[in-house]
Queue: 2 jobs
Job 1
Amino acid sequence: MDDKHYDLVVIGSGPGGEKGAAQAAYFGKKVALIEKEQELGGAAANTGTLPSKTLRETSLYLSGFRQRGLYGMEVNFKNQVTARDFLYREKIVSQAERERIKTNIENHNIDLFKGSASFVDENTISIKPNNSKEILIHGDVILIATGSYPFRPPNIPFEHSGVYDSDTILKILKIPKSILVAGGGVIGCEYACMFAALGVEVTLVEGRETVLAFLDDEISGALAQAMTRIGVKLVLSSKIDNVKKEDKNFLINLDTGEYIKVENILAATGRSGSTSYLNLEGIGIETNSRGNISVNNHYQTKKSHIYAVGDVIGFPALASTSMEQARIAMVHAFDLKYKTSLAPILPYGIYTIPECSMAGETEMSLKEKNIDYVVGRANASSNARGQIIGDKDGFTKLLFDANDMRLLGVQIIGENASELVHIGLIGLMTFATADLFIQTCFNYPTLGEMYKYATYDALGAKQKKDEKRLKNIK
């Protein structure tokens, strides 16, 4: 067989591309992986997931944020945090992840090609490396995992230095005195919190009435309050009309008539699928206005042998789901009799300060479905481990079916929320009832123990609801 003929050709080495390639190779398929950037790993390793989470930890460490007031004294590790301080750890973590991906590709005997990929026909891919001739390879199955890039709204002047998106912010030369963050989604809120922890004056502008509107109302409200406490000025129900450069600052005019003056601007206004260079229209695959590809439940495009996963297909656009989508797609493509469907309940982790995480239903979704439910809460301030670490405002919120006390949703805000949510996620996946947390013995002192006390609280709420119902019947 021709060396340039593969069972699978994967375009993109981010979480979806890497795991999809490895899944097929593990089962003996001949696989090629194409990456157009110099570094492996896509946005997850280089500009998004890992860098932003590393920067969060760096900002907390350098600012002494977690220690403030904890031991009855003020702590400030560094009077002036530099951009080099801020970005140093991020570079180490990203490099380690790139090395891990490279090793994984080598261990699976996957052929790696560097260059920009585009379709010549439905099975032939053209690869154009920098400063060398075009290569053509053929794949029986194609997996598109090209990820996304930051959307740049036309009313923000990116031609000026000092204006960033979520990719270019990693090249910031100095920590500014003030910054405006445009967008109250996940990326906007995460970076707003990071800069606020470093002592930067942060203004976040969001067109909706709340930040992170997909979260449970109580959690997004608690996060908004926490962000305000750490110094983020939230300007909600407002949009940017225009931006003017004024000496070393930017003057932002909002549609409400308000003016804001800041040193830097960070646009976090969503992302677009990286598809423009693939020549998809040449093979009959359409994309929407944001460059996203439509797929079916098996992640097949209109062409049954061409699959797409991850950010390039839109929501939920998480590294965790991208990996799973790719594995499922490859199982279907090669009939591997392995993992055939995505988990029905997905966790969401938002690395703000404090962290937020959720799985399953929210109060809003239960009301929309007319499901009778009860709520149980446990506060970190009443938890021994919460007291030890100084988490005064965090809480765990559990939603149960009011009839059989089956767990329906988990909402957490506070320290380690993105880790703690997995306890509840497993309960949701196994259709557990309140008995699971009542019968479980949790380590003491731990934040996980809040599950037990939130469940006791929910049982109390159920008892009151039942008593009220009986009283109304009488």
Job 2
Amino acid sequence: MELENDFYYFWLTFLYRIPPLRLHECVNYFGGAREFYEAEQSELFMLTDRQKRHWQETKEQDTVYRLWEALPQKEYGFISCASERYPAKLKTLMDYPFGIFYSGALPPERPSVGIVGARSATVYGQELAYRIAWELGKEGITVISGLARGIDGAGHRGCMDAGGYTLGVLGTGINVAYPREHDNIYRQMKQYGGLLTEYVPDTKPLPGLFPRRNRIISVLSDFLLVVEAREKSGSLITVDFALEQGKGVGAVPGRPCDLLSAGCNRLIQQGAKCILSADDIFEEILENPVYKVRRTECNYEKPDLGLAPKEKMVYSCLRLEPKFIDEILSQAGIPVWEGIQILTELEIKGVIRQHPHQYFYRTG
């Protein structure tokens, strides 16, 4: 019986031409998804003629029934809002999805942090997002993002590399990897994390779908972190949702003249928490009595990278933000030929990377 009822919620996810809140009104008015499905078209006074035709067409489409019958053979699953497995945080949305499609593991019941930011992020921003996500993942805190280019991808990778759980909220169908260059992350997250979407399978990456999915990123997160965002950034849509939902918001500051950090600086000016490291986020979560985060160590010890004395000296001159080779060697006070040799060795060891035009920076 539960599986049969789930079909009617599954069918509701295909009614994309009816506004979500209106769809909720209809289901509540008729007393359930099945009752709405079995209603007479003449009873649908709250719908326009076009919406009534859409309602009727989805009932007659073979696609809906074929996808439903094929679900057991798919690499993804479906959970209706009537299921006990449906994430409880989603139910706090006025327009919560009637069902979600997922792959991998569902979000565990533990503290979570959303990480969002610029798609065209700098190397510095991506490395910082990676490092913060790594530290969060190491401590068992879920990292949630949207699998987009730049900051999103860096956050997912950092958490997975630390052995943590990360969730990607998609603005496409569950079987559509977008962007294409994140196909590898997409596959890894199905194995080591989870993917979730309210959109039906095969839904393409249409621009209007992504702002709406941001409300799911924020509602599933207990704290939202913004790393690099312009003043009119899509990431600020997620911030608006988070503030409406009563969530804590933090931002990584940047230089006043840096346009890519203008949104973050403005958020801090307006009262968002200034985040310089993962410890600042731990403080926010630890202050919330709802969550009991077990920390292995609040102050992380610097790892032993196994570097020779001169390698350590050159390494200490680098930061996450790229530095030009002349500045590095001048600060280290060593000959050019020797500095180039040491930088090459450090790059081979994987502790630094080279940006175009002889700029170097530390890895996460």
